[in-house]
Amino acid sequence: MKPLMLCDVDPEDARTAVGGKARGLAVLRRHGFRVPATWVLPAGPAAAGPGAADLSGLAGPGLWAVRSSASVEDDPVHSFAGLFRTELGVGFGGLPAAIARVAGSGAGERVRAYQARAGLSVRDVEVAVVLQRYEPPRESGVWIGRDLEAGRLEWASGAAEEWTAGSGAGPAGRACLGVQRTLGAVADLEFAVLDSGLTWVQYRPVTRPVPEPAAAGGPLTGVPAAPGVAEGTVVCASDPGDPSWRPGSVLVIAGTDPEWVPFMAEAAAVVTTAGGSLCHAAIVARELGVPCVTGVGDALARLRTGMRVEVDGARGVVSVTGR
Asked: What is the pTM of this model?
């Protein structure tokens, strides 16, 4: 099977064949927003095995991004953020193997852990594959809208902008507001700033609102990332296989990636030293209903395994209740 060009993907079609990520990109393209040159391998045998897809029309120099576009991904309730595989900077010769790995990522443990915690049917997921021409970005960022005239923007490069009530004058933020106004929808967006300008790499609905900062009153404070209050025993886990982990503990770590999702799905709460309200830990915790505070810079210095803490994810407060 030959990959579909993005221009041939109808955003109104059923999601199961091309998945949520491809649909979001097709929506952006249909409204005239700039996206990378993109092709889509629908879910099924053509994407599942190395060499199964006919890639002859894509041959040529340059690098590729190979991204997941699962049937369940990027819907209005569950984004499955980061749970399926993405590979960047892939040469043409490496595409068949990369496609097979991405297409096969719907059978991973972290996907099943997310499904179980979210109350979904625990099953393997069909994953379509998005192929994009790839250029390493000068900067990249994430936006989650609060309403059509306001939202929050964080830069992956380390710079940061925040807007409330539609204020702020940065060009990236104005561009994000422009997408929302055009689509008439509050948006979760990812973009890359290339030498040639700003390019959109993802659009999906906002699954959970970003908590508003509130006055803090505890000994450790950070970014209110996922609402809720929970008390538990701290585990400062060293890696996603740490034998000291126990379900119902408070996970305290520097930051998460998809490999941490099985622990997150079992946690009473999550505390990270880095990140903001749009980082991986925050997005996944909100969808799983796990209280989360991010950006608590001194958490690993002041908390140790075995302590009892209360985590207030709406206020961004972590209080020690027992030692």
From this structure: 0.77
